[in-house]
């Protein structure tokens, strides 16, 4: 292989890597939104995602992954603000319920029942949100 | 290693000292492997679902701004 070919291969590899990385980052960027749109995952009043019914193993793994990341963020903010992780999580749920649950998507209030947002009707706020 | 031009005794003493420092370094490097090892493993069930939320509204209000930022800065997670 001569020098020019090596350079071309390296350049090609670079392009493939960058494209792949961008696609991956893009997919990760709306992981939570995609899960909500799937219809088998919803938002809970405790600030975490939950499975509405039974779900495939890969969906469960994705939900776990999102929840672990959420917990890490909650923990960080809690220590910065002198609040508990549960308090930060519950406060976040208020915002998620208000702005992230789309029409036809699922949410779960402290009564434990999964409900589906009906059209453009607003999602009821969990009672702790005030 | 270049030793300063000392007497034979001086050279021997610095060699011994270097040896001691070396042993100390080895011991320090080995320490984490012995007692100082803190294992951090993710629990198998990291998130307990407890929907009985016990939180005061004033806390929600106080955290409101921070939480809004948190959501905006982590689009894949929220």
Largest sheet of chain B: none
Main sheet summary of chain A = 4 strands, mixed
Distance between the termini of chain B: 58 Å
Give the assembly state of these chains: heterodimer
Give the overall pLDDT of chain A as a whole number. 89
* Shape verdict of chain B: elongated
Q: Give the percentage of residues in beta strands of chain A.
A: 5-15%
User: Over all CA atoms, what is the radius of gyration of chain A?
Assistant: 20 Å
Largest interface, C-beta closer than 8 angstroms, per-chain residues:
A-B, 44 and 27 residues
**Sequence of secondary-structure elements of chain A:** HHEEHHEE
Please report the total strand number of chain B as a whole number: 0
Concise synopsis of the structure shown:
With 130 residues, chain A is an alpha+beta fold.
Describe the overall structure:
The complex is a heterodimer of chains A (130) and B (78). With 130 residues, chain A is of the alpha+beta class. In chain A, 57% of the residues lie in helices and 10% in strands. Chain A has four helices and four strands, in the order ααββααββ. A four-stranded mixed sheet of chain A has the order 2-1-3-4. In chain A, β1 and β2 form a beta hairpin. Chain B has a domain at 6-34. Chain B is built from two helices and no strands. The longest helix of chain B is centred in the first third of the chain and has 23 residues, at 8-30. The mean pLDDT of chain B is 69. The chains are: A alpha+beta (130), B mainly alpha (78). The A-B interface holds A 28-33, 44-46, 48, 50, 64, 66-71, 73, 77, 80-81, 83, 86-88, 90-96, 99-100, 108-112, 126, 128-130 and B 42, 46-47, 49-55, 57, 59-64, 66-68, 70-71, 74-78.
Keywords:
heterodimer; A: 130 residues; alpha+beta; four-stranded mixed beta sheet; 4 helices; 57% helix; elongated; B: 78 residues; mainly alpha; 51% helix
Question: Secondary-structure map with pairings?
Answer:
The complex is a heterodimer of chains A (130) and B (78).
Chain A (H helix, E strand, L loop, with lengths): L2 H27 L1 H7 L3 E4 L4 E3 L5 H25 L3 H15 L6 E3 L5 E3 L14
Parallel strand pairs in A: 1-3
Antiparallel strand pairs in A: 1-2, 3-4
Helix pairs in contact in A: 3-4
Chain B lengths: L7 H23 L26 H17 L5
